[in-house]
Structures are given as C-alpha cells and as structure tokens.
Protein 1
Amino acid sequence: MNIRIASALVLALIAIAFICAALDLPPAGDHQAPAAQHVSPRYIEMAYQETATRNMVCAVLADYRSFDTLGEILVIVIAGIAIVYIVGISRPADEI
Amino acid sequence: MRKSFGSIILNVAFRHLTPFLMLYGVYVLVHGHYGPGGGFQAGALLGLAVVLVQMVQGTRAEWRIGVSGGIILACLGALIYLAIGLAPFIWGGNFLDYGVLPIAATPAEARALGILGIETGVTMGVMGVIIVMFDLLTRDNGEREE
C-alpha cells in the first residue's frame, strides 16, 4: 500500500511539473511564438525554390524533416518484424 | 486464410475494383508533390489491394505475397530510404541532403526527385507491413507458408 501512495505522489509531482511547463507554452496560432518567427516563414517562402515541390507539407515531411520520417518508417518496419515473432511464437517453430 | 468468404458476386466484383485501387495508390504516391498524398497513404492503398484479393479468394489467390515476401518488401523499402539518405555522402553532402545528387539540372529538382525516391521507400515499407499483419492474424491453425 505504501508503494501505491508513493507512486501516486510521484505521479502527482510529475503532473504538476508538466502542467506548469504547459502553462508557459505560447497559445496555438500565436504568430509571435519563437517557432513562428523564423522557422515557419522560411518554410513558407523558400519551400518551392529549394525543393521544386508545390506541396509544402510534402517538402517539410520528406526533405526538411526527412530524418523524422526515416524514424517513422523504421518504427513501422520493426513493428512488422516484431509481429512476426510475437504471433508466430504460439505455433510450432517449423511453421514460421 | 484458408477459407475465403467470397461468393461468385464478390469474386467477379473485386476483379474490377483491384486495378483501380492499385492505380489510385500509385496516383496518390506520385501526386504527393502537388496535393494531399504521399508514401504512407499510398502504401496503405496498395497493401489493401493485395489484402482484398486474399480476403475474397483465400489461399487460391494468385497474388499471395505471404509473410516472408511482405517482410522482404518492407525491409527493401526501409533500405531504399536509407540508401537514398546515404548516397549524398559520395558527392560531399550531408545525410539525406539530396540536393547534391547529380540526377537533375538544379539542386531543387534533385531534391524533388529525392523526395519521390524516399516516398517510394515509405510506400513499400507500409505495404509490406500491412500484408504481413493481415497474413499472420488471419492464418489458420497449422497453415504453412508456401
């Protein structure tokens, strides 16, 4: 029971810390936010000149932030390999 | 999936549906530069075209990619992505900096072609994983990979 109370206290402390941090975030759609000051205008103004791609979302997803997309596709492929082992483990080994 | 649930109506209807489904998947892939779309959505469409054939025809399906084929397809997709990411090292660029690749006249056009290449890799990865998931979860007891 003590462990439950202790873990509840720890979770409450973490929740308070996160709420305090979230209160300091700029509101959604704030054009004075730091991210909207230099990153977003650069994407909007230069995306077509730099990537010859009319779809700005595609340019950001696959060029400016392609390292992120690499992580996403690796996660999906690793999940597929994990499914093979997890589902196949309940069957005889020669059937996989 | 040993038993299909296709009646004769489904068996006739899916033959007209599948080519358009696959064509739409390829369209979504190559149209990602100009509108909504891209690798993940195209992979879902192409994977579901293969899944549809297996649902209607069961083990009699001609298009049976199977678990090992799906894993090979998914890993090839990730490998294409990594290879296009590593290729700029040869021409002195950074990781995933396709602007330095000598495949187009200007760096911007090279970037557009590089985006298409990695989207193809993403498509193959998502398609393979969807086929693997469907094949494993609907496999009957004692059914073997052919």
Note: Chain B has a mean pLDDT of 87.
Protein 2
Amino acid sequence: MTNIVQPAGVDTVDSTAQLAAIRGGGPRKSRSALRLMLPTPTPWLITGLTLIGGIALFGIVGPYFTMDPTEIRNIGLTGPSAEHILGTTQTGQDVFAQLALATRGSLEIGLIVGVLATVLSAIFGILGTYIGGFADEAFSLFSNVFLVIPGLPLVIVISGFVPPESRGLWTIAVVLAITSWAGSARVLRAQTLSIRSRDYVSASRVAGERAWRVIAVEILPNLLPVLASQFVFAVIAAILGEAGLSFLGLGASNSSTLGTMLFYAQNGFALPLGAWWWFGPPGLIIALFGMGLSLVNFSIDEIINPKLKNVRQHKKRTKVAAKAARRKERTR
Amino acid sequence: MSYYLRKLGFYLIALWAALTLNFIIPRLMPGNPVDILLAKLQQRGGVVDASTRQAYELLLGGDNSQPVLVQYAQYLLNVGRGDLGVSVSYFPAPVSEVIGSSLPWTIMLVGISTVLATIIGVTLGAIVGWKPGTWLDSLVPATTLLAAVPYFWLALILVYVFATTLKLFPSQGGYDVILDPGWNLEFISSAITYGFLPALTIVVASLGGWLLGMRNMMVSTLSEDYIVTAQAKGLRSGRILRTYAARNAVLPSVAGFAISLGFVVSGSIVTEQVFSYPGIGSKLLTAVTNNDYALMQGLFLYITLAVLGANFVVDLFYGIIDPRTRARS
C-alpha cells in the first residue's frame, strides 16, 4: 500500500514543500505534506490492514504447519475439538488444514486476476483516452459494452465450453480478468480526461516528450490512488467470482480454493447435517478479507476525494474542542 | 443527436456484441460441442439426421463447408426468429420454451429484491451521510462486511439458520410442488414463502454497496454551496435533506446501476443454485453440467437481453432525473 502511493508523494513533495515554506512552516511541514499522500492511520484502516495481513499470513504460512489436508480418517463430521480445531469433513479430513490451503489458493487467484484486470483497465482506460479522437471513442464504446454484458454468466458459458481437463488456474484467471476490467476502465477514463487537459501535461507534450513518457511520468502518478483503489476492488471481485465459479463446480481443476471447499461442503450435505464448522469458515474468510480490502479502500478514497477526509477531520476537531471545553468546565 | 437516440444506438451495439460473442465463443473453444451434444441427444431418444446436425452446427460451429460469414448470417437469422435449437437436458422441449418457463421466476426474484435493496440502501445511506461523524456514521465501515460476503455463502447461512435449525422457511424450490402454478392466492402465497430466503439473501448482500455509495456522495454533496445557501435561507432540514442533498447525491448511484446489476445477476445465479430455485440461474447450471450447449447459449442470450433492457430503462430514467445529460448531447 505504502509502496504504491509513495512515487506520487515524491512527485508532489517539492511544490507542497515550497507552499509550506511560503506559509511560514519549517522542514517539519514538508514531512506532513508527504504524509498527506499517505492514508491517515484511522482505526478502520488499521483493522483493515490487520485483517488482510492476518489472512494473508494464514494463507502463506499456514499450510506448512497444519496437518495433511487430504488425509482421510475414520472420524467423519466431528465438531471442533482440541485435535481438529475446526472439526473434520465427511471423510474425516481436517477442516483447518484445508482452510489454510484453500486460503492460499484464493489469494493466489485474487492477486493474479487483480493484476491482469488492472493492467487491462489501464490499457483501455488511459491509453485510448490519451490518444483521443477515434481511438478514445472506440475504446470507450468497447469498455461500455463489456460493462453491460453480465460477467458471471459469460464466465459460466466459457467455462462450460472448456473441457475440465484443460481448465487450469490461468484459464480461469484470464477469463475472470477479461470479464471484470470494464468498470475500472470507465473510471480511469474519466480521471484521465481531466488530467490530460491540464497545463503541465500540455507543456510536456509541447516540449516534445514521447507519448509513453507523458503517460508514465505526467499522468500515471496522478492516477495511482485510483489505480490502487481499482486494484483492490478487482481483487475482491476476483476472489468472489472464483468462489462462485468453484462453488458451482466450474473452477480450475485440481485447484484448492475457498470456493471448492464450499462446493465439497455443499455436496457432502454439510448443510442438512448441520456441520457449520465445514461451510462456515471458508465464507467468513472471504467476507473478512473482502472487508479488510474495502476498509483500506476507504482510506484510498479519502486521498482521491479529500471532501471525505474533511468530514473526519472536522469531526475530530469538534471532539477535541468539546473535550477542551469540558476540561475548562471542570477546572473552573 | 438526442440523448435517447444515442442510448438506443449504444444498446443496439451492445446487443449485437452479445450475439456475436455467443457465436464466437463455441467456435474458439477446444473440443467439439456438436458431437457431444448429438451423442447426448441420441441417448435421450432424439432422432439425429442431417438437418438436426446442421442446425446445431449453425449454433455452435464445427461445420466447415460454408464460409464463416454465411454461418454468421444464418445464425443471426435463426436467433431473430427465436429459434435457439432443442434442449438436450429437457428433451424434447425447445430451448425457448425452457427459458420461457423459468424466466418469470428470476425476473420476479431479482427484480423485487433489487428494487428493495436499492430503496433501503439509498435511504439508509442518505440518512447516515446526512449527519457525518455521528455514532451511526462510524458504523458504516462495518457494512463493507456485507458487501464482501459471497451471495451463496450468505444463502447457505440463511438456510442453516432459518430452514434447517428454526424450520421457518422451506429450503428448496420455488413453490409447494403439490400446487399447480397459476394466478391463485394459494400458489402466490406459497411462492412468496419459498422466495423469501432467496430474496433476503440478495437484498442483504447487495444492500451494503448502495448504502456506501450513497453515503459517500451525500457527504460530498453536503459541502456544496447550495446546501449552505439552503441552510442560510432557514429551510427545514428535512426539506434540505430530500430536495437539495439526496436528490443530487443519488445521481451517481443511478448512473452506476449497470455495475451493480451485473453483480446482482451474477450473485443470484449462484443463489438460485443453493435454493434449487426454478429460475434461469439453476437452468444455466443444469445446462452446463449436462453439456447442453444450445440451452447454455440461449440462456446467456436471454440473461444479457434482460440486463441490457434493465440498463436501458435506467438510462432513460436517468435522462429524466438529470436534465444535464440531455443538454450535453
């Protein structure tokens, strides 16, 4: 997160430092200017980062410490106990071990699709808009058409035509990415349109900068918060989409994700048998991870739309003022 | 060009794109769907002659005797006539008949729950955003949990709590099977009881998004000058909330309807599967698991058509509530 935003901060630090100097602030002010580009550590942001970090750690490290998730025991469908923290499946497999492995699988696909979808949306959203004219119209029409064509039905149809043996992790990732970039492309287009007509962009064009340099150096840094926010959304959408697909039995073959876990739970009659420890945790992990990402997005939103930040700061100020007033009252 | 004409043109292009996707996808994919389909058809006792084969090849590809463009033209012609082939999994019913019997269920379920979720979410968002910084507002980030919950998982939990444990609602199907579908009170009340949990799933899972979007726009709108002016004029705060703030803040939510609807439709397909609801979603899955390619294509076409139609209506509506869009074009 910090890494993503920093280049933008470096870019603006000079001018804001000057501004701060004009206002009569010392070098301490410039540090706070850099901090303006970084999300403020609100309680919700910390909650979000903790959730993401915890679940990511669980997915990365967890599988090394849990028992073999495929081992079959003769204690089918037992509830949580000291030995099996989250109970066992119908065939006596340890749910906790499966959960760790499945979390890893889901994060993997979320990350792959998130990157692919963001790259696609950047190509269609930024490049077309920068070129302008016919290319802009065509790219914009293309992404709008993709936006209104419902994603999951298309993914289901495509997965239905691909035979299961050739339905690998990358196939699913590419299909999910193809169906999920359009929304962010539209947002990026709107942002690029406003940046592209600013004076410093025109200046660098007049100065004879090459197109890729104008895009990469002048335009892209301003779009980084938006791109970061779109990436976060893409990861959530990908994890949810993959879970849905796997739950329907259409996911990547030989993969183990939270969706496949739910698929086996549903087919193993976990629901009528009341095995909540089997179908509960996978969905909860998805929901909590998605919540963590959305909470981080809140902070990114405050960078994109400072009006949202004003509200929180205003609230903080009134709180501080109220506290001070109360203290005054007491000392009187 | 007027706003409405441009919108109509755009949706026609989108429709054409969907039709073309439908034509291209089976031709690009590995494997030979026509052979699989005909083998299935034969198993079900269907008569396979040269004309059936040709009809399916037109839908799914595999026929190399004609140029692709001719196939494409014939395919468009067939779809235009409503001829989508014969379903294998519901043999001998034609695809259009299978879709016709399941479409009303999904449209009712998704339609009603989307409208409910929108109204509740936007209203709550407006109220929460109206007084930013209160205890109610600080609860808003918690709704992201709702937005991130997978639809089908929420459905599983609801079935577990309300159907398996409390036995308040039935867990499977769309109506009591001993009743005949028809417009009588008994059947409708049965359909409502059966549809309650699926609808609740969709409403709860999609509520968070509406609420958040509305809340953020409301907060942005409140710092506009015209709100300050309205307050300075001494207007009642209820009036400012409704006719000054909420009315302007709701526009992006309406404009973003296409994205939201896409999520809802995707979510409801999986939800229908959990409840074995007799709608489009579970039919699509039956079609996929049975390699019923003709039905699959037909369903995708109808889902796309319904989504495009809904978006078109919302866009027309948007033109009415936001006059600037009409003026700009």
Note: Chain A touches chain B through 62 residues (CB under 8 Å).
Protein 3
Amino acid sequence: MSIITLRESITQALREEMALDENVFIMGCDVGLRGNPFGITKGLMNEYGEKRVIDTPISEAAFTGLGVGAAIAGMRPLVEILYADWITLPMDNIVNTAAKTCYMFGGQANVPIVIRAPFGVGGGVAAQHSQNNENWFVHVPGLKVITPSTPYDMKGMLKSAIRDNGPVICFEHKRNYSMKGEVPDGEYLVPIGKAAIRKTGTDCTIVAYSYMTYVAEAAAIELEKEGISCEVIDLRSLLPLDYDTVMESIKKTSRVVVVTEAPLRGSIAGEIVGEIIDRGFDLLDAPPQRLGSKNSPVAYNEGLEAMCTPKKEDIIAAVRKTFE
Amino acid sequence: MKDSKCIEELKKEFDAYAEMYSPEGLDREEQIRMYSIMWLMRKFEEAVKPLWMANKVHGYYHPYITEEAIATAIITQLKKEDYVGSTHRGHGHLIAKGGNINKMMAELFGKEEGYNKGRGGSMHISDMSIGMLGASGIVGAAVAPAVGSALKSWIKGTDDVTVVFFGDGGANAGSVSESMNMAAAWKLPVIFVCENNQWAIATDYARITGEPDLYKRGIGFGIPSCRCDGYNIYQIWETAKAAIERARAGEGPTFIECKTMRMLGHHATDDSWYRDMSVCDKYWEIEPIKRMGEFMVENKIATPAELEAIEAEAMKKVEASIEYADTQCHEPSPDTFYDYIYADGEVIK
C-alpha cells in the first residue's frame, strides 16, 4: 500500500494501461509537453512518444470525434476535455456517435473511448469552469458515467473504463485532486456500476457522489454526535447506478437524503428519488429529501460561489427533516 | 447520342466541366468493373422509391443517383483494409467498397439479416469487415470520426488510408474544418472528398457560401486541393490515384472537390418544389453512366451490347436483393430490444 493523491492515482492508471496495451493513447489540449494543467499526464509524452500522448489544437468537437473514430477502428483513446464545461463542444460526437454507433451498426462496431473531464465548483473560476454537467450524459443510453472520489476508486475504475469496450465518461472533481488515500502497490480493478458504503449507519441513508461524498461524511460525523446514525453511500458510478446497494440501505434506515452538486432542477437527485419511490415507497418512513446546488450559474465572487453548493449544514438539516 | 448544343450550353454554367480522356494505367477490365458498379448503384437506388411507396421500406432514404462516378472512381482504388467515411447519401459508397447489396436491402427493409440488424436503416449503413465506417445521419458529423481512423493508421504506422466523403452542406460544419487542420498538421493519411451537389437540403449552396470554390478551403489549411468534374469518372480516378499514393506514402491529406448537381430531391419523397428542376435537363446529358458508356463505345473499349448486358446484370442483382429482403429475412425479435446498446452483450436498462 502507498498513500497517494487522487491526481497521482489517475497518472498511475494511465501509465499502467498504456504499458499493458499499445492501443491506448491520450489526446487533448496540453496533455503532452505541459502534462495537463493539473500535472496528471506529466512525463507520459517522454515515455510513450508524441503519437501516444498527442497535443491537439483547441478543437474539442473534432479531436473528440477523431478519438471516437480511432476507437471504432480498434484503438483505445483517452480523450481529455480540459474542463467539463467545454464538453458542450464535442457533445455531438459523444451523444450521437460514441453512444449510438454500437447500436446503430447492430453490434458491428464498439467504441472503447474514455473521456476524462474535470468538473465541479471551487476555486473562483466562475460559470464556464465550474459546472456539474454529468447529469446530461446519464440521459443517454449507450454511455457509462463514472465519478470516482477516492484515489483507490479512481485508479481502479479508470483502468476498468479503459478496458471497457464501450464509451465511458469519467468526471473528476477538481476539489478531489489533492485528496489522499491508500492504493495497493499491485494491479487491481474496481468494477463500474457498484456503489461503496463510506460509513455504515442505521437511521438515515445519505446518497452522494464525488466531492459531495466528503461533505456527506462530514455531516454524518456531526449527526453521530446527536445520536443519529447515517449510512453514507458513494455512488461512484451514475450510469449504471447501483440501486441494489441504495435499496438495501433504505431497507435498514427507512430514510433517505440524496445529494448532488449539480443544480437541483432536472438533476440526477430527482431521478434517484423517483427510482427509490418506484422500487420501495413502502420502505420509507419519511419523504425522501433532495439536495443540490442552487439553480444558478456559478459566481466568481467567493461568497456567492460558496452560497451555490450544498454544505454540511444543509445535509444535516435535510437528515433532521426526515425525522420530523 | 450526345446533344452537342446542350453540352456547349452546359459548359457555360458548369465551371467544373472537363473533357473525358483515358488516363494512363486504367485498363479495360477495370473500366468495365467501374461501369458495372455504377449500374449496380443506379439500379439499387431506382428500386428503392417504389419500395417506399409500397410501404416495404420507410424512413429517410437519400439517393446517390448521378453521383455514382465519384464513389466508384475513388473507392474502387482502395484495398480492403482502407477506410471509408460516408454520408447520409451513402449507398453508393458501400457498393463501391465491395459491400453486399442483399444485406443492404435487408437493412432498408428493417430486417434482422440487414447490415445493422434493422437498427440503423438507410442513414447508418456500415460494414466494418470492409472498413466501411458507416453512414451518418448528421451532416458533416462523420468527418471527424473518419479522420480518427486515419489517426489510427498514423499512430500504428500502417499504410492504410481513409477516404472521407461529405457534401457542400457538410463542408460548412465546424468540425470538418477542425478535422482538416489536424489532418494537415500531422500529415494524416486521409483524402477529403467534397461531393458538391450544390444543394444543402433545400438551400442552394451559393446562397450560404461566400466562396463557391469549396476546394480552396483545403488550401487554407495547407492541404493540396483541387476540383474535379463530378460526372467525369476518368478525371476523378486519376486525381484520386495521386491522392491515395500521397496518403499511402505518408505525405498527408488531399482535398478533392467533386462538383456535380443534385438532380433529384434531397430524399426519395422530396419533390423539390423549392427549385427549378428544368435546370437539370442539360446535366442529364452528362450523367456519369451515360457519359462513360458513350466514351467507351466511341473509343472502342466496349460495345453497346456489352454495356446493355452489364445493365441487365445489375438489374438482376438488385431484383434478387429485393426478393431476399422481402421473402427470406426476419423481423428483429422483441427479445433483442436491448441488444447492442452496450458492448459485449451487456444490458443496462
């Protein structure tokens, strides 16, 4: 075991998979010489050459399209979008080509592409560098959407994503990049589509993912002091989503709070609550609670930015509400 | 026979017009093969509209009629491992790459035996076994993925080349320009073929394009670029030959504009009410099958009887494909509803 940052866990996953499979290559803006703005791909161009770590022009629409086509032709591209906000540019190639080719072609072609996208609020980078747009992709059959939050999960799930024969979008919260955690020294994989229980509890289930998992854990520790025992579930993967784990927990707690950092309106929190009601309305002793960001673009101003997202206190209040 | 007065009139307005000639290195056998392929495309396309009217096929279907020379002259020079990126008007591209018309017809009928198991239809015909990367229903959207197959050849260091087709409409999509830039920057083995039929759905391209010579866009990206008479199979063949050799030798992309004129509606049931179709009368004089046939007879490459036999053979093949699709194929089973959404048989509901 070694303790590394989430940022380093991504680098390790990329390096290992590139060594194992010569079809794996990376492309994106500044991924080569600069090693990406967060240093994640630093050194890889020297190790693997300019044809396997490709610095692209700032043409997200087309270079993602090139990645999709290379995947159809048998490669395993890792396409990096500098900030998830700009995933709007290659949206057509992701939604209409990557997600649909296998289906439209009757299974003749696979699209084993991984798209990495740093997302989330924080750092005063305002409305075009802070979004949570993972929800958009959960609506698209044919895609997988993952949001690992610990170094262990990130490395293991990213490796699974690279080996997956279909398109996977990996959303990486910028606030998680410096989080540290234990990672085994040897080879391991974490499957896509299985949630993790971060804290066991008996009174209320808190369902969260990515950075909000850490906020939920902090809320659960506070609530424990009041005698409310919360179970914190980190979804890790939004598509597919592990409802079995969610429902098992609710069977025990009979209460649920669902937290997302995305603007609440139209977010996955509503979808999860809907599914919980369909699967087990009778299990619930209280109305399920949804928490998300305010329905606003993210502000530059520190105070306004902070107002936007759910806080530990908001989660505590939502849990208490399930006992009213 | 040729109406020479009509041709003189045509030359005045069709600036891409080029006289037919026998290019060096194109033997008789290959000319006969190309002529046969064009007839197969024509007969296939002509068969579909009645099938649509009879409710045997449905949805959108965009005929390749009168553009046959372009795909034939270029794609027949490729090897099996080479890639072709297609458009919504893609039946001809697949036939030229050596695709199976029975499977294509079965796909138009929506059958399980079709190329795409009935999931794709006319707009998404593909055959990965021959590098046919598939048609796309989104104008211009298939260009970047097709250039991605050339990126693979570049990374792997193979000599496979990619030919990607798009129209005058697709040429105006942003990612097409972005893709041309990357292909030029990295000298990717790709040939951009702009099938300029002068109509972007129901809009005359001259109304929406500042520079009507679309090949000049390639020059702007540092790509050797030229224009061909889209009805002249010999000129296109010779131009494509040089472009394919360049790409195979690692010398980078070429842009070929094949100028033509859309002589039918955008899709099978578009009656073209928005344009004066009498403009096309002159162009029918140089439609590519008639024109190549006349050239081959004049130059004693083939006899009229041989050409008639080729046409009849094409008709027979198409009739057989209809018979196959209509009587020997099956509807997809409802049990397979969730198949192919994910790879490897994975089902996520």
Note: DSSP finds twelve helices and 14 strands in chain A.
